[in-house]
Amino acid sequence: MKKIILILLTALTLNQANAQGKKTEKATFGMGCFWCTEAIFQKLKGVVSVKSGYEGGKIANPTYEEVCTGFTGHAEVLEITYNPMQITYKDLLEVFWKSHDPTTLNRQGADSGTQYRSVVFYHTPEQKALAEKYKAELNATNAYGKKVVTAIEAAKPFYAAESYHQNYYKNNADAPYCRLVILPKLEKLEKVFKAKLK
Predict the structure, then answer these.
(1) Distance of CA 37 to the CA centre of its chain
(2) CA 182: distance to chain centroid?
(3) d(CA 105, CA 124)
(4) What is the distance in angstroms between the CA of the first residue and the CA of the last residue of the chain?
(5) Torsion angle defined by CA atoms of residues 158, 159, 163 and 169, in that order, rounded to the nearest 10 degrees
(6) Which of 11-15, 89-93, 174-178 has the lowest mean pLDDT?
(7) What does the pLDDT look like over 137-194, one tens digit per residue?
(8) Which candidate in 33, 36, 68, 178 is catalytic?
(9) What are phi and psi of 5, to 5 degrees?
């Protein structure tokens, strides 16, 4: 009996060590202009870092100017590194779907083009299953009054955007664009997700 207990305790200790060893995971979302959305995820508890960048296109190392043409096939995305012990992927999906309009194809507000498409780039089969389930529920309940058109695709190479795109709101909070477009999104975040904020 002592041997069985010792084996169980050893297995339990190894599982806990493995769980602690895997401290962060990645989530990648495209939801329009990354200037508008980066600051939202930066405010969430458990989010370690947020990088603005490009994903889903057909050329390597695209520039902002190339992506803006719409010809590269990339979307403006956020690569989010998070601690799953503090915030779940499901929580991140909830913020994703409630922070933009997932019913407009290749458009968010005044921004139009495939680079502004609503897309989830999943990194694991579990992320894919959760994203598909959440999208199906939104459509089944007619949550937006229109069909959710968000694409759900396997992660592709991520290319970090130029340095002036990173931490855009933090570095330009007083700019008219930030005050008129980004600040209202942050105010909504504070109301809807107050318990999840840092």
Answers:
(1) 9
(2) 16
(3) 25
(4) 47
(5) -40
(6) 11-15
(7) 999 999 999 999 999 999 999 999 999 999 999 999 999 999 999 999 999 999 999 9
(8) 33
(9) -65, -45
CA atoms of 101 and 158, how far apart (whole Å):
23
Per-residue model confidence (pLDDT) at position 5: 46
E-only strand ranges, 6-161: 25-31, 47-55, 75-82, 107-108, 111-112, 118-122, 151-154, 158-160
Q: Are 67 and 57 in contact (CB under 8 A)?
A: yes
User: What would the two tokens of residue 180 be?
Assistant: 């008129």
CA–CA distance, 178 with 172 (Å, rounded to integer): 7
| Rounded Cα gap, residues 34 and 37, in angstroms | 5
Q: Which amino acid is at 16?
A: Q
Write down the pTM of the prediction. 0.87
Max Cα-Cα span within the chain: 70
Alpha-carbon distance of 76 to 195, in angstroms, equals 28
Question: How far apart, in whole angstroms, are the C-alpha atoms of residue 55 and residue 7?
Answer: 45
Look up 36 and say whether it is catalytic: no
